[in-house]
Each structure stands twice: as structure tokens, then as C-alpha cells.
Amino acid sequence: MTSEYFTVDNLPTFTDDPILETVEKAVPGFTKFMAQYSGVSFNDGLYRIHAVDQLRRITAMCIEAFPAYENRIICYSSNWMGHLFAIDPSDNNGKGSIVLFDSDGAGDFDIPFTFAEFQDKILFDDREELLQESLYEQWKKSGGETPTNEQCVGFDVPLMLGGEIELSNMKLSDMSLYWSINTQIYAQVKDLPPGTPIGDFRIED
Hints:
With 205 residues, the chain is of the alpha+beta class. The chain has helices spanning 18-24, 30-37, 55-65, 115-125, 127-131, 133-141, 175-189, and strands spanning 41-42, 47-49, 74-79, 84-88, 97-102, 107-111, 151-155, 170-174. It has one domain (1-190): SMI1/KNR4-like. The chain has seven helices and eight strands, in the order H-H-E-E-H-E-E-E-E-H-H-H-E-E-H. The model has no long low-confidence stretch (mean pLDDT 90).
């Protein structure tokens, strides 16, 4: 991590898990990184590293929305809006690369850098694009709460249904529930032609 910029909000909560060994084979240093930062958030919730015992659950949540990545990725971190960052150990000539997942309808984006390059440089250099830092500052100044690692700040009216990226349309949400709702909405609108009027939606519990 770029320690000169990212300040730690809390102590790590590390538990060993075989999933670490799987990633470590392609990404040396990942286990050491998680031992230091598992469950830690930075800069008052701007960026969060998932606890080791949550990696499988959060990855499964992502795979439900993006099934093409099944058995390929491990989701290890997120930003305050619940956008997920994952390692694809098989990519980048076996050195592993990063994939960004956005449940608000924007999709998945390859970030063609190794895990070390991403954490040590790219995350800092491109923090506005990757972390939406300015919008978070606006959210906080407006009185918005700091999301916990299990929460995110999402959109009341989903962007896929015409919602706007503005503070009046944002709210604190449980991240798993927010992803589940967006996944169901996307499944119902993804094949509609542009400009199709949006009617009623059925969301399952």
C-alpha cells in the first residue's frame, strides 16, 4: 500500500485459510499482504480489504452477477460504493492481474497490472477513477455515514433504471443485499433494446 497517502482505520482480523495458498502460487506476497491488512479499511472507509474469512462469500456474490468469472477470480477488496476488486491469478502470463466489478450496471473492467503494481502505485495514481474519491468527500461533507466493510453507499433509484449519480439519490446499504438487488435488476434489463420503457420489477428475497 502507498502508506504516504492511505491511512489505516482499524486493526487487521487475520485468519488462515487454504484460499490464500491458492492465490499465493500465482501472486507471491498475497498471504503476507492479507496478514497485514485483512479486514482493514483506509481513509475513513474510502477503500477496504475484505477479511480472509469473507473472501469466498464475497467472491460468490460477484460470480452470481458475473458468471463468466467462475473459478477464475478472488474478490479481495472494495471501495466505499461497493465496487469490487478481484485478482485473476491465471491472467497476465501467470502473474495475476486485477479486475474491477461494478454492480451498478457499468460491468467488469480489466486492469492490466500485477497485484503489487496495483496496490503500490495504480490505486494511488488513479484513485479518482477507481475509488471515486471526490464523490466520497462530497458524501461525507453532506453528513453521510462512513460505510463499514459490510456496507456500501449505493443508489436509491438504480442507475440501470434511470437513477442519477447525485447525493440525493445515494444511501447507505448492506453491500450483499445491494449486490443481490442489482444482480436481479441487471438480469431483467440486460437484453432490452436501448430506450425501452422500464415497468415493474420482481425482486426475490
